[in-house]
Design brief:
Elements (H helix, E strand, L loop, with lengths): L7 E4 L5 H12 L3 E6 L3 H13 L3 E6 L7 H13 L4 E4 L14 H25 L5 E5 L3 H4 L5 H21 L5 E5 L7 H4 L4 H10 L8 H12 L10 E2 L7
Parallel strand pairs: 1-2, 1-4, 2-3, 4-5, 5-6, 6-7
Length: 246
């Protein structure tokens, strides 16, 4: 990416967990960051305040990514405040789990609407508005390779994201824009721990060759590589950042 202008990044779902770690890391790397949040304004503003106190630039932008106008809202804010968009990190998502037989139509529509629809609209907005030499980074998941029961709809949305990533990479390459996906394994966040017993968490830790859960900063480091100057020759790939569990 050119150093002729301030580099700017949008991080969806940037108020907590992995998204917050990504926002903080990109800010340390010199990006001005638009921290998207759906509902928790206080958490997003806390991330923004931390970035600003550390000498960075950031704003909090509310948008429900299941809404069709959400991505235009995010790009409009980033362009108005920072001048343009160089990096989009499609991090936001939802992960309700149940056997396929128990998924009703409303739940299916919610999962697909956010996980797949939100990412699709982010990719589309980036294809239309991202500056030359930019980066589009979306989230898949290691469950695409594990095929675990109860993950059917969630895994399907992530597999679709991988397919769109590979195709969009070829469509945007003439503009110097790379498009990649990152597929974490289990990461130690509040979302991951919710509803799990200590025994379940311990069993998941043992599945990993390193004997631990991933940390948000483990994933943020991979995002930072793809977003930065050293990641320019990585395009159309899904990086399985999971410690070797798959």
């Amino acid at each position: 990416m050119s150093n002729a202008h301030q580099r700017n990044a949008i991080v969806t779902g940037g108020s907590k967990g992995i998204g917050a770690a990504i926002a903080r890391r990109l800010a340390r790397d010199g990006f001005a960051v638009s921290v998207n949040y759906g509902h928790d304004r206080d958490a997003a503003e806390a991330v923004v305040a931390e970035i600003i106190q550390s000498g960075g630039q950031a704003i909090a932008v509310q948008a429900d990514l299941a809404d069709r106008s959400s991505m235009a809202t995010l790009f409009n804010a980033a362009e108005q405040i920072f001048g343009g968009v160089d990096v989009l990190v499609n991090n936001a998502g939802t992960m309700p789990l149940s056997p396929l037989a128990d998924v009703d139509d409303d739940q299916f529509d919610r999962i697909v609407g956010l996980n797949l629809g939100g990412v699709f609209r982010g990719m589309r907005e980036a294809a239309r508005r991202m500056r030359e030499g930019g980066r589009v980074i979306s989230f898949s998941s290691t469950v695409v390779g594990l095929y675990q029961p109860t993950y059917g709809v969630y895994a399907a949305t992530k597999a679709a994201i991988e397919a769109m990533t590979h195709i969009l990479a070829k469509e945007l390459a003439p503009r110097g824009i790379t498009v990649n996906a990152v597929a974490p394994g289990p990461v130690d966040t509040g979302l991951f721990r919710h509803g799990k017993s200590p025994e379940q968490i311990a069993a998941i830790e043992k599945m990993n060759p390193f004997g631990r859960l991933g940390q948000p900063d483990d994933i943020a480091s991979v995002i930072a590589f793809l977003a930065g100057p050293d990641g320019g020759w990585v395009n159309g790939q899904t990086i399985r950042a999971n410690g070797g569990v798959v």
